[in-house]
User: Fold this.
Amino acid sequence: MKPIGTPSGRAWVDVAVPGPSVRLPGVSMAGFRHRAPGVVDIPMVAYPSVTLLVDLSDGEGAVYETQGRRERGSVVVGLLPGDLRATGRGAGQLLQIRLEPVAAAALFGASAELSGTVTALEDVWGRDAGRAEDRLRAAASWDERFAIAAGLLGRRLGTRPPVDPQVAHTWRRTVTSRGRVRVDGLADEVGWSRKRLWSRFRSQLGITPKRAARLVRFDHAAHLLAAGHTAAGAATESGYVDQSHLHREIMTFTGLTPSALAAAPWLAIDDVAWPSAARVRRSGAAVRGEGTR
Assistant:
């Protein structure tokens, strides 16, 4: 495990990542052991994935709150959760699983009902959620926990109809272009009308193609800010019209200012917890395009 501190220095977190043998398509995992001396209140930054947060702590666990909804313990965070905060006290352990929307659809079915929400894991998985928590809590190491989680997810993946190949292709192109791709061009690529692509994408992934592109582009800009880029530089690099445009998008997705986003602990640990994603962000220049319309 690698110990790291938040930018404020108020809390330390040990981060564990799975080895290369634990791999599932569209799934990434990280384990966290935190030992905050008091109450911790962390803004959680929107990310282009559906996120499972499995609370393995003793006691009451963390509380997640967004848009008037409040959940405690293990949760599923859908796409576009808005101004989401996590609060907790003292030491604890957490398994975080990020699911690309295509993988989330294969796991849960059409993810439209999860979009914009925080839902108790038990409400999504039923009694299997409690049994999974017990097994993960009893594991002797993070490596064992990752193997258990991969086995549980692997058995569930593929039990539901997959998303359309055209929808999966559109999502991949949106990610690889860092959100700077025209929806009309994507429709032409898959041989569908814009209306059909819009409808199928939204019904299967719970988000429109344009909103997906905005989320992916925001994520790229957020990590540039966390890496020390100026707001003006991040706006230019990510394809925003100007710094004010980026500011509005940050407020829309997180309710934070650009400076607060840049210092968010949620982003500070990303390059440690998700090294493969960090490599993708650092590789090459941003794809230049005309923006999403």
Observations:
- DSSP finds 14 helices and nine strands in the chain.
- The domain at 165-282 is CATH 1.10.10.60 (Arc Repressor Mutant, subunit A).
- The longest helix spans residues 209-226.
- Residues 1-11, 284-293 have pLDDT under 50 and may be disordered.
